[in-house]
Amino acid sequence: MDQNKLRKLLEDVKESSTSIDEALDKLRDLPYDDLGFAKIDNHRALRRGFPEVVFCQGKSVKQVAAIIDRMNDNYDVILGMRATADMYNAVKDVREDVNFIEDSGTIIVGKMPAPKCNATVMVISAGTADIPVAEEAAVTAEAMGNSVTRIYDAGVAGIHRILDKRDLFDNVNVIIVVAGMEGALPGIVGGLTDKPVIAVPTSVGYGASFNGISALLTMLNSCVPGIATVNIDNGFGAGYMATLINRLVQEKD
Fold it and tell me: Got the DSSP string for 162-182?
């Protein structure tokens, strides 16, 4: 159901005995669009506060373009994650207002929202090689209305690079820390701030890092309280979680 139809439904509800809350409860369970190879959850934005995000990896170019084509009239902004340049070019045939963040492989369709004044996130990467995952987190947070501060290549091998930025920690609500290798940076950051830290292990590292498992275990076993860990290379999940935390801060204010 597109936004115009939704507005019309709500207008009709206002003239009936059904309350707005009852109508919204019913809308949460309305059907999805079935494309055969994909079922688009049209009402995820209503239930979760943001539309379904297209995970492009493993899908064909035609499938990605078809999904976004079906979604594009319903939402102000659509994200396609882990996309290729070929997928981006195909989506450009569907929509003119489309951009591609090459570092993270993110397709952005539509206009990014203006940041909400209290929705602040910091994204830190341990190394330059971790930037693709860090950018996935940052772009996700921005698309969901957060203001994002980036600090890149500030790992523990040169700890002064993050210590220099401690004063910036006070200006954000949530800190996302992205690290591969041994994954020690989230624990360092967590010990320097009272803000919640979302740790993102990456698959960057030599053989004994086991494609990110070493970093994941380090983050899960941190003795620093207030650190939550998402899956390996899951920048999107970190950006989404940061948004949920910020939403609670805004509701409190």
Answer: HHTTGGGGGG-SEEEEEE-TT
